[in-house]
Amino acid sequence: MKAAPEAQKRLLELAELDAVLDRLAHRRRTLPELAEIDERAAKLARLATEVIAAETRLGDLSREQAKAESDVDAVRVRADRDQKRLDSGQVSSPKDLANLQSEIASLNRRQADLEDVVLEIMERREAAEADAARLTAERAEITAGLSTLEDKRDAALADLDKESGEAKGRRGGITDGIPADLLALYEKLRGQYGVGAAMLHGGRCQGCKVSLSIADLNRIRAAAHDEVLRCEECRRILVRTPESGL
């Protein structure tokens, strides 16, 4: 392949600019906010499940407490009714009187037991309410932090996109001065090796950092000034400059 030396030197400008674009792309992929956002989002998802579970427990306890309180009320009503019968003097038979007194005592014990159950449920409900409140507050805190991180991420991405856009604009100006076949070879090598062209500087390829042999340097010296050369080690386009050491 043949190309004017000036066109070949433009490959070095292009390679330098592509290196800038690669660094910008790497920074875009590795923004610290991205990992933090993923971590917080995962924690937020776990918290959402925990909040639902806590609210479900609280709902179950509320229903359990309501039922226990209803049972207490039912026993209390029955005991009050029997006590009124007893106090009214309507029961005259000693046997019926003894049975009524026994039933009232039994109901009072049942009421006391049920009231203990209500207190125990209320304690569990209080703990469940505190747990749900804690989880809800933690979720709100993480959500706020996540929003802040997303704002930082968006601002950083906007800056990187601006830099990348400007670099791509300059790239277009550089590629306009490179023959299509030379540019196609450069792009192919860039896709294979990450860098498509490198300077020969002081007898060393700046792409692979390998010093060329005397035979290779002699071959390069003998080559036409417009011949497109390749490094024998890394196969990148080797661009000659006054600093090549030839």
TrEMBL record:
Basic and acidic residues: bias regions: 62-87
Domain spans labelled CT398-like coiled coil hairpin: 14-194
This protein's record includes keyword Isomerase: no
Coiled coil: 97-166
Domain of life, per lineage: Bacteria
Domain C4-type zinc ribbon stretches: 204-238
Region (Disordered) residue spans: 62-94
Keywords from the UniProt entry: Coiled coil
Cited Pfam families: CT398_CC, Zn_ribbon_9
InterPro entries (alphabetical): CT398_CC_hairpin (IPR056003), Oxidative_Scav/Glycosyltrans (IPR052376), Zf-RING_7 (IPR003743)
Designated name of the protein: C4-type zinc ribbon domain-containing protein
